[in-house]
Amino acid sequence: MHENDATQTPGGPAPSPLSLAESFPSSQRIYREVVHGECTLRVPERRIHLTDGTALDVYDSSGPEPEDGAPAGVPPQPRREWIERRSPGEGGNVTQMHYARRGVVTEEMAFVATREGCSGEFVREEVAAGRAVLPANRRHPETEPMIIGRNFLVKINANIGNSAVRSSIDEEVDKVRWATRWGADTVMDLSTGNDIHATREAVLRHCSVPVGTVPMYQALEKVNGVIEELDIETFLETLREQAEQGVDYFTIHAGVLLRHVPLTSHRLTGIVSRGGSIMAKWCLAHHRENFLYTHFERICELMKEYDVAFSLGDGLRPGCIADANDEAQFAELETLGELTRIAWKHDVQVMIEGPGHVPMDRIKENVDKEVECCGGAPFYPLGPLTTDIAPGYDHITSAIGAAMIGWYGTSMLCYVTPKEHLGLPDAQDVKQGVIAYKIAAHAANIARGNTKARERDDALSKARFEFRWEDQFHLSLDPPTARAYHDQTLPAPAAKQAQFCSMCGPHFCSMKITEDVRRFAREQGLEDGQALAIGMQAKSEEFRAGGKALYGSDREEEQAAALAAAESEELGTG
Amino acid sequence: MHENDATQTPGGPAPSPLSLAESFPSSQRIYREVVHGECTLRVPERRIHLTDGTALDVYDSSGPEPEDGAPAGVPPQPRREWIERRSPGEGGNVTQMHYARRGVVTEEMAFVATREGCSGEFVREEVAAGRAVLPANRRHPETEPMIIGRNFLVKINANIGNSAVRSSIDEEVDKVRWATRWGADTVMDLSTGNDIHATREAVLRHCSVPVGTVPMYQALEKVNGVIEELDIETFLETLREQAEQGVDYFTIHAGVLLRHVPLTSHRLTGIVSRGGSIMAKWCLAHHRENFLYTHFERICELMKEYDVAFSLGDGLRPGCIADANDEAQFAELETLGELTRIAWKHDVQVMIEGPGHVPMDRIKENVDKEVECCGGAPFYPLGPLTTDIAPGYDHITSAIGAAMIGWYGTSMLCYVTPKEHLGLPDAQDVKQGVIAYKIAAHAANIARGNTKARERDDALSKARFEFRWEDQFHLSLDPPTARAYHDQTLPAPAAKQAQFCSMCGPHFCSMKITEDVRRFAREQGLEDGQALAIGMQAKSEEFRAGGKALYGSDREEEQAAALAAAESEELGTG
Q1: What percent of chain B is predicted at pLDDT more than 70?
Q2: B514 and A264: CB-CB below 8 Å?
Q3: pLDDT at res. A506
Q4: What's the whole-model pTM score?
Q5: With 80 as the cut, is the pLDDT of residue B242 above it?
Q6: Which of A571, B280, B389, B476 is deepest in the core (most CB within 10 A)?
Q7: Residues 269..308 of A with a Cβ closer than 8 Å to B: which?
Q8: A4 touching B, CB under 8 A?
Q9: Of A421, A480, A415, whose CA–CA distance to A441 is shortest?
């Protein structure tokens, strides 16, 4: 077996992403129109049309399609008129938290309320309390608003961005489209290489989900990579440049304090956050306290002019299982709690980044400590990876931890791709990471008892049970892949109507047998278990009287024909 | 983006598996020699040689290589002489449980004790108590013994087998070799198509891990697929045929009782186990109790002649999230507990199969109930899948559930491949399923606090931190894939010595910075946090005195050269 066969992704950049129609056949982007004050909000969903005449509407982060009305090349700006009409609060404060605390349900809040199936007032309360973040820079009118908080659907973030060894603006824009198509709720542009400003501009103008960045990377470019030369002025200048472009949240490693660094001395893998290591080095070089910490209120003043949310970085997160939940990590978390309270004093929105690498038995402690230290601010972990031994599969090692931490109360999950620890992800890696994390987030939503999320599982399982193969594909997270896998063994069109699959063949299909028993029960007007038991006895007599076949002869012949067609096509394609 | 690019596996059967040396470069199968009574046991491990001169020995299920001494085409039979020397107990009983209860530590027990790092006496106690199963048909001398139980490493099973729409004996044998190479601890041959006897024979003779089957499939072939014509005589004849071939454990759906079937009437997906639906239909057709239940003691009598273990099938497992943990499922589980006690009366080994599809919040209940109902017999779940919406990715939806249920106390995890619900897995799907489940089992072992399992995480993380790229690949679950991913961005050989990767590039590597701080601390003889803090102050002065570079100039130049080499090769390959 050649190893090229064993890898999941082809080398090099991928061609442009598929259209919505190609990615999700039988789906359509619809808009739910909601009147809010003087505005009519157009809240998107994706409608999946099923072959039984019904449809299922699902949450959709993919952004407007060209045919939705905007001229080609001009991205729609659903938020522009809301932003223009709104008057800033005290000190030019335009944050959603500021409005929420003044009792205002903004258009953004009404919009996300429709997406989440709750009231605008509930959204307002959660934002006012700091339990939810609604990332919405006033300079990013392209955003379709979304909300991150423990009482809402679990969200996922996809990281994109180039590095010094690989760079292309078009490729990054394609990754954004690709990530949001498959379900990313926010995107972080982590570029560190060339064209950092232009890449971010292109990303923002083509992105209908909130965009996050780590401004430290660009600040460091401004001092030619010399960490010791960083200072608060350069940093604030960078923040303003990025806030003006429309970045919705900033990862800022203000919790890495001088006194924390020695706590990492016994670690197996030291400091693995790029921002964390930069600030640790700065602190060492100057033997002074982290300037992001000492000047934190100046940063808050800037954030509230634009409504950029904090994503307080966990610069001391563990980089391996051995370092999980250690003193350094939790000492920083306490500092992040302190900073959260300062930001909230300015009505600036805050979420808290989390680990990293954590064994399953120590995941819950992270959520509990975060809630305790940070007053319920949304938690935004990376993974966590539950073992270190599977580079190449860290989307899986971490989807396990992500699903669990999502269930335990996390608000947004930062994805990990198969390339983690090995290389820069390409578009296909981005897709693999997004799908793994949609699975984790959805599993968490179900475990939390979200009935709207469960509708999709039930619709798909019903389609599966009724042998509606097309519907099973269309309801899945990745219809083209589900179809391609089915085609590999049974490519004949007739197989898509068949009441069996290649796993069991036609004689061993448990669902076929169950379905038949059920139909009989329905025909007899039997619905509950007791009545079915009586029906079973009747059917037992019918079986014995009528010979061997469970199905009527027409049905048997039809299935045999489907099998024969499938088999002959199979032989034909060799 | 073309969807063929998006699928993880190529169509059609894969070529023959790689050799051990190609799959695991820098590894070697070694044997730990252990004297036990008159025998010298040769217990395998895989030794991973590292570039720092050390090595790590890991559990190895891959079986002997041809160069290990056996003539080509003649599989080694490590158990032959043990079996021949041993005298059966009462009534011809040769089960490991029988010997264990008589106080005998068999060669098999001593063998697995070495593999697990415990005493033979501990193994004996666990087997005697029914808390562990050591599957070891006396007609399968090719097996390298392994143990399944909650106080041992979590194991994984890979299902292989053809169906009516696809069939090739060679392909199935390749799947077995491929599955055990990547880490399957047992293999189940679920063939239902042609050549069912010959396929099983080929599998058994080429398989050094225990093999399980579902004998009902062949029994049904013997009555030409007419479920109503099944009876205990045909079934016992089939059991004997397969036991004579050497099958180590049988899935038998003896817990599907007539009274349970109506409990499935409100289910969304009815009965999804093939064996379960067959027995449900049989019960309906005859309106009689399941003959596997009523004749269970006759089955036990046969099993103990060979030491075939029961894997009591959960014929009423849920087939979707909506049906999880329902009355039908748990009613059957109680019956399985009753059957367990009967089997133990005969000293026949038992494990219990489990679901299926279960949301995360309801997984633990399954383990608790199983322990309660079945007296601690090893639990052997399929997955469970934690959501239904991702056909094409059910190795991931289920690895989440598998890791959790493993942590909660499960003994063996039955894998799920990406083709689940869509088609018959090929060799590449088998590999994807095995790797996902090795991740789940390993994460569970770590969460349970197994220090031997953790050694590998720590060794890999240490290699990562020290930029020993080759060691990082070699310690991983899938070295060729890890290497291929690294090569995609940085194919130059120099990049394998580089102190950075393509994710961050050379200027943003947190590990590089941390490593440097550490080296400094070591040079100064500083080890604890307090001393490091003092050292940091000194270093801070050194930084300010000595200019900007954290690294000495030689180091900087070396890294720049590696980057330049990587970049030029990158351009060269376009």
Answers
A1: 82
A2: yes
A3: 62
A4: 0.91
A5: yes
A6: B280
A7: 269-274, 276-278, 280-281, 284-287
A8: yes
A9: A415
